[in-house]
Amino acid sequence: MPKTRVRSPRVHEPPAKTFSQALRKGNHLFIAGQTARDPKGKIVGKGDAIRQARQVFRRIQALVEAAGGTLSDVLKMTVYITDIRDAQGVRAVRKEFFKGNFPTSTLLCVTALADPDYLVEIEAEAILDD
Question: CA-CA distances (angstroms) from residue 90 to 44, 67, 95?
């Protein structure tokens, strides 16, 4: 079973031959750590973890939908934040996007992410219906 790259016009594509935003193999979808960039690559919500979290969840939603699924198919997330004081706000934003049984989730507070303006990064895994 081949793996296929999933793309969405709502998610900025990385430079060629660096990484994939999302890959699907069978009914498994793996979404790379998403950050708060708009479709043109500009950071959304500099200095505001809540705005960044909203943008990150929008990107995850766009990729899941591009793969043929919905957010209810997301089973696992790993959330990275750079300030533990933002944890409650990020959790509140998650409630705007998920209903019912929430995905399993691990929250990590890290000293830095790939860009100093990133305050939130989230990776996700989903199992899609056939």
Answer: 15, 25, 9
**Are 63 and 118 in contact, with CB atoms under 8 Å apart?**
no
Please state, in angstroms and rounded to a whole number, the distance separating the CA atoms of residues 21 and 30.
Answer: 8
CB 113 within 8 A of CB 121: yes
Judging by DSSP bridges, how do beta strands 28-34 and 120-127 pair with one another? antiparallel
Local structure of 44: helix, strand or coil: coil
Alpha carbon distances (Å) from 34 to 2, 37, 99, 100, 120:
24, 8, 20, 23, 8
Measured CA to CA, the distance from residue 53 to residue 80 in angstroms comes to 10
38 Rama sector, left if φ>0, alpha if ψ -120 to 50, beta otherwise: beta
Tokens of 60: 């995850």
Paired residues of 40 in beta bridges: none
Query: Which pTM value belongs to this model?
Result: 0.96
For 28-72, how does the pLDDT look when each residue is reduced to its tens digit (9 = 90+)?
999 999 999 999 999 999 999 999 999 999 999 999 999 999 999
